[in-house]
């Protein structure tokens, strides 16, 4: 199964993608997580990506496409995947469609997690992320057992640099300009499904499971 998660920054794409990956036993591929991992390791790609990420801007398509096309070569992608944060622009979506078509394949579902802008800034300022294992929490909605420490791997949690309110507002603007047009793109391909992302996390997940089937 090949699934794309669409939605504004902070809509819950990552949270739901992890649950989908666990249930359907497919890899969770987050371009944002890959950029952050590169940043942490101090690679050239990480340094380049940081310049854009810290400003709330998108990393250029060429860099992102090179990275994701390389990731698709990994054998774990043979049975499908859940894409989180990719594609994010029309050229990225077109490149994905083309790459899949060349193999006689296509995406199964593009799931749009719908959350109004008003809810987003509040969610992001409460988010805490583990840069070691990729887990995310929320200080109110999804607290850890020990404050500031990852339940899964025991490392210290951080507030992402791009989760500061001014940067979140910028990211929302970029989302409306560059990523929202993908809703139309996948609607026209009959792949789009919408879920109400303002519900409690488990309720959102149950709606997604209904869409994906068993
Ligand atoms: P990326 O890491 O993809 O960030 P994003 O899309 O801005 O999305 P987030 O990860 O911030 O939000 P999310 O929807 O995953 O929400 P989450 O589940 O964490 O990208 C970062 C940057 O990298 C971009 O700005 C760009 O620069 C670059 N980049 C990445 N991909 C790119 C691409 N393809 N092209 C170009 N550039 C790219 O949830 C948010 C919070 O809410 C959490 O605290 C969570 O616990 C909480 N929460 C989740 N669900 C619920 C719920 N139902 N109720 C209450 N709280 C909830
Ligand atoms: Mg995410």
List keywords for this structure.
binds magnesium ion; two-stranded antiparallel sheet; 14% strand; binds BIS(adenosine)-5'-pentaphosphate; Rossmann fold; alpha/beta; 9 helices; 214 residues
- What is the CATH-assigned architecture of one domain? 3-Layer(aba) Sandwich
User: What's the story with the biggest beta sheet?
Assistant: 5 strands, parallel
Overall strand count: 7
What is the percentage of strand-forming residues?
Answer: 5-15%
SS-derived structural category:
alpha/beta
| Rg measurement, Å | 16 Å
The CATH top-level class label of one domain: Alpha Beta
Plain-language structure description:
This protein is of the alpha/beta class and 214 residues long. It has a domain at 2-27 and 74-116 and 170-212: Rossmann fold (3-Layer(aba) Sandwich), CATH 3.40.50.300. Helix content is 48%, strand content 14%. It is built from nine helices and seven strands, in the order E-H-E-H-H-H-E-H-E-H-E-E-H-H-E-H. It has helices spanning 13-24, 31-41, 44-53, 61-72, 90-101, 117-126, 165-179, 181-188, 201-212, and strands spanning 2-6, 28-30, 81-84, 109-114, 127-129, 136-138, 192-196. The strands form two sheets. Strands 2-3-1-4-7 form a five-stranded parallel β-sheet, sandwiched between helices. A two-stranded antiparallel ribbon has the order 5-6. Helix 1 packs across helix 9 (201-212). The longest helix is centred in the C-terminal third of the chain and has 15 residues, at 165-179. It is globular. The two termini are 12 Å apart. It binds BIS(adenosine)-5'-pentaphosphate (AP5) and magnesium ion.
């Amino acid at each position: 199964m090949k699934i794309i998660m669409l939605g504004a920054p902070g809509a819950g794409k990552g949270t739901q993608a992890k649950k989908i990956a666990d249930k359907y036993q497919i890899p969770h591929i987050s371009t944002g997580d890959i950029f952050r991992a590169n940043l942490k390791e101090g690679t050239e790609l990480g340094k380049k990506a940081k310049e854009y990420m810290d400003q709330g801007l998108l990393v250029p398509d060429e860099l992102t496409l090179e990275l994701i096309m390389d990731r698709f070569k990994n054998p774990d992608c043979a049975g499908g995947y859940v894409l989180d944060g990719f594609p994010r622009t029309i050229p990225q979506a077109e490149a994905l469609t083309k790459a899949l078509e060349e193999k006689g394949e296509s995406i199964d579902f593009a799931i749009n997690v719908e959350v109004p802008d008003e809810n987003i800034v509040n969610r992001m300022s409460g988010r805490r992320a583990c840069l070691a294992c990729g887990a995310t929490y929320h200080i109110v909605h999804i607290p850890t057992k020990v404050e500031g420490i990852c339940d899964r791997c025991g490392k210290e949690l951080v507030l992402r640099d791009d989760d500061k309110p001014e940067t979140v507002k910028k990211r929302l603007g970029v989302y409306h300009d560059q990523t929202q047009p993908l809703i139309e793109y996948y609607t026209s391909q009959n792949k789009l499904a919408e879920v109400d992302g303002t519900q409690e996390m488990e309720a959102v997940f149950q709606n997604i499971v209904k869409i994906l089937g068993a």
